Amino acid sequence: MLAKAQDKQREFAFSRSDFDRLRQMLYDAAGISLAEYKMDMVYSRLTRRLRDLKLSSFADYLSHLEAHQGELGNFINAMTTNLTAFFREPHHFDYLTNEYLPARQATGQQQIRVWSAGCSTGAEPYSIAIALRNHPDIDTRQWPISMIASDIDSNVLNVARAGVYDLPRIDGIDEALRKRWFLRGKGENAGMARVKPELQAMLDFRLINLTRPWQLNTRLELIFCRNVMIYFDPPTQCRILEGMADHLVEGGLLFVGHSESPTRVTDRFELIGKTIYRKR
């Protein structure tokens, strides 16, 4: 009786069967495994699409989704989580500055190719770029450093590519770094900040579905894939991590989120620091 009462309060009819079909479609399209308790989350995230399409139920939306391939991108965009912040999990950036760059300089290896997989609105790849270009004692301006920044959500990629953020988004960044790497907006752009072009030039933004062929066409020294694996089931995690190991150079590094552990699903990596793994 309680479930029926809740259904009546909803703007759109949404059954358990609808939810199960949407879960399966998300898994098939993006490899994302939604927990059974996230029915309310799915409802809240998709209601705007139903309103925009002038549909009256989730059954209608499912029919529309199956009939219009172009809607799949909107569906995936709505379902993906894009929590991000500049220099989130700061120990990773401290490692790049204090250990990784000095080690590269000592060996004379200057080329650094990076993949930020699941870059969201750009805070992560721009933070990586700043860390690699802002060493106090090592001038890396002439080093060939490049980065692929990818996400499955086309909307957040557009934000990342533009590199424009409201000032509260960058308040947590050290003042010296803000002045060095961001341009404050004036006039109609007051209250906004833009990443400097020299950082943007390092990044190649791409729409990449981690469960599909990546077509990276390069080997990599560093991969950041943080707080992404938590959305996949173990077999999918294993396939993705095996692919990342294949794309890393020998001794290449993988940076993951605080609740993720690649060694649980593959033996291709070894732990060398706090949520930092090296390809075996």
Structural features, described:
The protein is an alpha/beta fold. It folds into two domains: 2-79, Chemotaxis receptor methyltransferase CheR, N-terminal domain (Chemotaxis Receptor Methyltransferase Cher, domain 1); 91-279, Vaccinia Virus protein VP39 (Rossmann fold). Helices cover 44% and strands 18% of the residues. It is built from twelve helices and ten strands. It has helices at residues 2-9, 16-30, 39-53, 58-67, 71-79, 91-107, 123-133, 154-162, 167-170, 175-181, 197-200, 234-247, and strands at residues 112-117, 145-151, 164-166, 182-184, 192-195, 203-207, 220-224, 248-255, 269-273, 276-279. The protein has a seven-stranded mixed β-sheet with strand order 6-2-1-7-8-10-9. Strands 3-5-4 form a three-stranded antiparallel β-sheet. Strand 9 and strand 10 form a beta hairpin. The longest helix has 17 residues, at 91-107. The protein is globular and about 60 Å long. 31% of the residues are buried. Mean pLDDT is 93; it is low at 1-7. Methylation of the membrane-bound methyl-accepting chemotaxis proteins (MCP) to form gamma-glutamyl methyl ester residues in MCP. This is Chemotaxis protein methyltransferase. It catalyses: L-glutamyl-[protein] + S-adenosyl-L-methionine = [protein]-L-glutamate 5-O-methyl ester + S-adenosyl-L-homocysteine.
